[in-house]
C-alpha cells in the first residue's frame, strides 16, 4: 500500500501554475561577496559582513512588496572546500546572525526556516536554528528560508530516501512526483517564480535543482553587497516581461489570460 501525501503546492510539470505580477517565491544565489571586498583591498570576509547588510534590506523590501517566499543560498554543500579561516568566519557570522537578527525578524512577522544538512554544523548553531524556527513558526508574513550546507543533489537524495522509508513496499511503477515531493526540503512552498543570481556567473551551483524546473532565471553582474531594493525592482520589471508558457504555445497562453 502506498501512503499518498500530496504536497500542498502544485507542481509546474503536473499542472500549469497561476502566475502573478509580483513573484510569489524568489530564490537568490547571493554571489560576489569576496570580489566586492577584494576590489576594495579588504579581506574577502569583509564582503560577507557587508552581504549580511544586503540580506536585511532585501528581506525588508520583499516583505513590504508582498513577496510570500524568499529563499536565500547562504552556504552550499561545496563551500566547505574554502580555506578554513573563511569557513570559520562564515560559521561565526551565521551564529551571530541567528543571535542578533531573529528577534527583529519575529517583530516583522517573518517566518524563518533553514534548509540543508544541519547535522554538520556546531551543536550551538543547530540549537539556535531550532529556537529561531520555533520562535517564528506562528508568523504569517514573509516566509524566509536560508539554505545552509544545502545542495540540490543532497536534497533529492534525502527525499528519495525518506520516500522509500515512508513507503517501504513501493514498486518501481508506483514512483511519482506526488510521493516524492512532500519529502523535499522546500515542500512547504510553491516552486520559485524568479531565480536571481548576483555576481555575474550564469550557473545554478547545486541550488534548488528540482524546484527550478520552470523558474525564470535572472542574472545580474552586480555583486551581492551592491544589490539593493532598486536592483530587486529591476529584476521584477524583467520578470513581468517574461511569457511563462510551461510548455504551451504563446497563443494558448494568451487565450488562457483572456479567460480570466
Ligand atoms: C557568496 O559570495 C557567499 C558565499 C558563497 C558564502 P562569494 O564568497 O562566493 O564571493 P565571490 O564569488 O568569491 O566574489
Ligand atoms: C554559490 O556561490 C553558493 C552561495 C552563494 C552560497 P559559489 O560562489 O560557491 O558558487 P561557484 O563556486 O562560483 O559555482
Ligand atoms: Mg562566489
Can I get a quick summary?
The protein is an alpha/beta fold and 260 residues long. The protein has helices spanning 33-39, 44-65, 84-107, 123-136, 152-166, 177-180, 229-240, 250-259; strands at residues 25-29, 69-76, 111-115, 143-150, 194-197, 216-219. It has one domain (25-151, 190-259): Decaprenyl diphosphate synthase-like (Undecaprenyl pyrophosphate synthetase), CATH 3.40.1180.10.
Integer tally of domains: 1
**Percentage of β-strand residues:** 5-15%
Helicity level:
40-55%
Shape, principal axes of CA atoms: globular
Order of helices and strands: EHHEHEHEHHEEHH
Determine Rg (CA atoms, Å): 19 Å
CATH class: Alpha Beta
| Class based on secondary structure composition and strand pairing | alpha/beta
Number of contiguous helices: 8
Low-pLDDT runs of 5+ residues are 1-7
Distance between the termini: 40 Å
The total strand number stands at 6
CATH superfamily: Decaprenyl diphosphate synthase-like
Amino acid at each position: 500500500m502506498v501512503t499518498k501525501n500530496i504536497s500542498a503546492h502544485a507542481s509546474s510539470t503536473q499542472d500549469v501554475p497561476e502566475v502573478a505580477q509580483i513573484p510569489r517565491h524568489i530564490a537568490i544565489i547571493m554571489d560576489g561577496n569576496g570580489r566586492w571586498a577584494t576590489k576594495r583591498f579588504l579581506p574577502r570576509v569583509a564582503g560577507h559582513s557587508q552581504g549580511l547588510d544586503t540580506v536585511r534590506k532585501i528581506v525588508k523590501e520583499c516583505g513590504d512588496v508582498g513577496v510570500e517566499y524568499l529563499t536565500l543560498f547562504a552556504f552550499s554543500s561545496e563551500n566547505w572546500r574554502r580555506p578554513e579561516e573563511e569557513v570559520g568566519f562564515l560559521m561565526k557570522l551565521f551564529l551571530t546572525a541567528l543571535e542578533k537578527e531573529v528577534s527583529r525578524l519575529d517583530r516583522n512577522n517573518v517566518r524563518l526556516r533553514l534548509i540543508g544538512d544541519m547535522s554538520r554544523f556546531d551543536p550551538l548553531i543547530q540549537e539556535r536554528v531550532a529556537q529561531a524556527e520555533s520562535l517564528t513558526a506562528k508568523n504569517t508574513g514573509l516566509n524566509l528560508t536560508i539554505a545552509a550546507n544545502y545542495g540540490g543533489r543532497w536534497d533529492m537524495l534525502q527525499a528519495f530516501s525518506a520516500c522509500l522509508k515512508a513507503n517501504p513496499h513501493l514498486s518501481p511503477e508506483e514512483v511519482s512526483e506526488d510521493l516524492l515531493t512532500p519529502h523535499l526540503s522546500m515542500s512547504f512552498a510553491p516552486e520559485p517564480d524568479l531565480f536571481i543570481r548576483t555576481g555575474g556567473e550564469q550557473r545554478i551551483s547545486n541550488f534548488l535543482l528540482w524546484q527550478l524546473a520552470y523558474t525564470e532565471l535572472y542574472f545580474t553582474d552586480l555583486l551581492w553587497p551592491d544589490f539593493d531594493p532598486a536592483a530587486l525592482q529591476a529584476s521584477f520589471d524583467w520578470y513581468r516581461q517574461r511569457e511563462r508558457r510551461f510548455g504551451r504555445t504563446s497563443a494558448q497562453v494568451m487565450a488562457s489570460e483572456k479567460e480570466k
